[in-house]
Amino acid sequence: MKGECQMIEFNSSSDIYNGKAHHLTLVDGLHDCPKLEGLSREEGRELFPRLRKIDIAYCPKLSFPHLSAPKELSLVGDYTTGLNSISNLNSLTSLTIGYDDKTVCFPKEFLRNLTLLESLVIENYYELKVLPGDLASLVTLKSLKIIDCPKLESLPEEGLRGLQSLLIINCYELERRCEKGKGEDWYKIAHIPKSLLLRYMILLLLIVLLVGLQL
User: Fold this and answer.
1) Do residues 195 and 166 make contact, with C-beta atoms less than 8 angstroms apart?
2) Of 106 and 24, the one with more pLDDT
3) What is the Rg, in whole angstroms, of the alpha carbon atoms belonging to the chain?
4) pLDDT at position 136, please?
5) Contact partners, residue 213, CB within 8 Å, separation at least 6
6) CA-CA distance, 148 to 40, in Å (whole number)?
7) pTM value?
8) Following CA atoms 103, 105, 108, 109 in sequence, which dihedral angle do they give, to the nearest 10 degrees?
9) How much is the pLDDT for 18?
10) Residue-wise over 140-167: b if at least 16 C-beta within 10 A, else e?
């Protein structure tokens, strides 16, 4: 869906509401809607009770209502308003956000209420310097991937409790601080069973090597 839409709107008298909206499990391909502000819902009734996955790109004004069904969310682009409302999706287990060249720090407590979140991907935040302050409070978080955030300076002071897998790619300062045994932030990730810090060139060499071994 692409264009100048301001609201995705359903009402109880429409065929869409009575049928498709109620059974909708996936919102995919919603992109380039700069004026889109929200997903309408009827008073006292959740509009998308079966919605499981939301995949949205470049809708900077979009905010989310309280939805209890979605498990996966992917946002591409600058989402200052949207990030503030992510906490309304309190059943999320997977969150991917990325491709933002403006954000320096995330909204305060934008991850609050995400008590079921297991996987978080933060990628291509070119100006980002600070990770979410409430990241350390996500006790269910098992996997964290931070990719191409060249100005990111450090991990949360509280560390990353419970994390089982950490992947950091092309985050130069963060890679230095997390260097095994001597980086300032090494103690924050030393307990993680699977942690990997890579530059793209090294990653490319590994891929070439693996492909070569399979030939």
Assistant:
1) yes
2) 106
3) 19
4) 83
5) none
6) 34
7) 0.80
8) 90
9) 46
10) ebebbbbbbbeebebbbeebbeebeebe
Is residue 31 within 8 A of residue 56, CB to CB? The reply is yes
Residue 110 pLDDT: 85
Find the mean pLDDT for residues 62-77.
Answer: 85
What are the C-alpha distances in Å from 20 to residues 11, 38, 42?
A: 12, 18, 15
Quick one: which of 129, 120, 106 has its CA closest to 177?
129
**For 71-76, what is the mean pLDDT?**
92
Superfamily of domain 7-214: Ribonuclease Inhibitor (3.80.10.10)
134 pLDDT band (50/70/90 cuts)? confident
CA distances from 184 to 45, 80, 133, 134, 178 (A): 50, 30, 18, 20, 7
- The full set of domain ranges for the chain reads 7-214
